[in-house]
Amino acid sequence: MKENLPKNKKFKNGKIWRQRISARMPFEKSLILFRSIFQLALQTLRANKLRTFLTLLGIIVGVAAIIAVVTIIEGLNQTVAQTFSAKGSNVFTLSKSPSVLTSREEMIKVAKRKDITQKDAEAVERLCRSCWQVGYSMQSLELVKYKENRAENVAIRGVTISTFDIEDIEIDTGRTWMRNEAEAGHYVAVIGADIVKNVFNEAPPESVIGKEIRVRGAVFRVVGIAASLGTIFGVSRDNFVMIPFQTSQKVFPTRESLLVNIEVKDAADLEIAKDQVTTIMRARRGKITTFIGDEKEEDEGFTVESADVFIGLYQDATDNIYLVTIGVSAISLVVGGIVVMNIMLVSVTERTKEIGLRKAVGARRRDIMWQFLMEAVVIASVGGLIGVFVGFSLANLISILIGFPKLFNVWSIILGVGVSSLVGIISGIYPAWQAAALHPIEAMRKG
């Protein structure tokens, strides 16, 4: 059949066939050559295990530090966002003081402000049209007793019934108090998991319901146990007792500034609601004139903020930690790169005769260069993989100790191995070039 084909067709098909063969062979040869060089690099590294391990240390430390810090900070960021966002972007607060005081001048301003009162909170609830739910609370650290058992520094919170919904507090056992119980000022309480553990000696939750605890001489009947909130930064969030706000006004005669939680139906209404609350409070208060030294400043006299403010401040702080850690890790990686370069230069000196023999039997300069460059990259990449493993192990250990989610970030692995490989390439270029530049006869004579 081939003889019956036209000559031009046969020639054309033959040309195409030859082009395919010529395109395939170099690629296959390259793969074979790459595999051979890679295997030779591994054999050389296995032959000098102690030297290879010492060379890896700098890379391992640098990569492990990067992976551990990135993983820890991402876990903390997620925990902080979940903790302080309540239901998310639909909630903001009205308070006397901001969540974080960043300067002495700000502390002076806050000290001159009036307390947020129940009348202020009721005015916001009545006049803010974009506000869906308004809840307010007070807090005091007190001693809680049950028979002979006691727990100190427990957060006693006097809250309105809407606070449970706004702060997304779930009841694990029992119930919250009824609205009529709150209005009548009944002595009922919802307790956190730590109270069950520390005051009731980890008794079954069902058996705790109906028991009575004492706070400042007042007796409260436990009607509910809140679902555990866990810890943040090693501090438990379950060490609390919640009581009706009206009851707290009888138990704690000293009036403290209230915290007002406000929820909107749609996140798009958040800024509108914040403006309305600000307008209401300005109409009630007016602005306060504050003198900082000789400078005169006007202060609103209150703070309206969402959780994003605190989260933003926290992330700004962690960004600085990122920069410092990356700087320190970069120094470690540079030191590791210098060690890799020195070891590779020593390896070139020790294997001078081998290089000469390889060149004498036909090895090209680029073959020698690829061999030594591959060894440097393999050393650094293995160090990077070990560093990734060590970094994740360290991060998971810390997550267990201080209590935040364990995160496994694929990008961290890519970053660790990629950076270490880059260090290997940069560190191996000069030794590989020096090895490739050796003259075969002189190399064999030196060897």
In spatial order, strands of the major sheet run 2-3-10-5-7-6
List how many beta strands DSSP finds: 14
Q: Give the domain tally.
A: 2
- The oligomeric state of the chains shown is single chain
Number of helices: 15
**Whole-number mean pLDDT:** 80
The amount of beta strand, in percent, is 15-25%
User: Regions with pLDDT < 50 over 5+ consecutive residues?
Assistant: 1-25
Briefly note the structural class of the backbone: alpha+beta
What spatial form do the alpha-carbon principal axes imply? elongated
In percent, how helical is the residue content?
55-70%
**Computed CA radius of gyration, to the nearest angstrom:** 35 Å
What kind of sheet is the major sheet? Answer: 6 strands, mixed, barrel
Q: How widely separated are the two ends? A: 62 Å
Order of helices and strands: HHEHHEEHEHEHHEEEEEHEHEEEHHHHH
How would you portray this structure in words?
There is one protein chain. This protein is α+β, with helices and mostly antiparallel strands and 447 residues long. The protein is 59% helix and 18% strand. It is built from 15 helices and 14 strands. It has helices at 7-47, 49-84, 104-111, 118-127, 162-166, 179-183, 193-198, 205-208, 245-251, 270-285, 307-350, 352-360, 365-402, 410-436, 440-446; strands at residues 91-95, 133-146, 149-159, 171-174, 188-191, 212-215, 218-226, 231-232, 235-236, 240-244, 259-263, 288-292, 295-299, 303-306. The strands form three sheets. A six-stranded mixed β-barrel has the order 2-3-10-5-7-6. Strands 8-9 form a two-stranded antiparallel ribbon. The protein has a two-stranded antiparallel ribbon with strand order 12-13. The radius of gyration is 35 Å and the shape is elongated. The chain starts with 6 loop residues before the first helix and ends with a helix. The model is unreliable at 1-25 (pLDDT under 50).
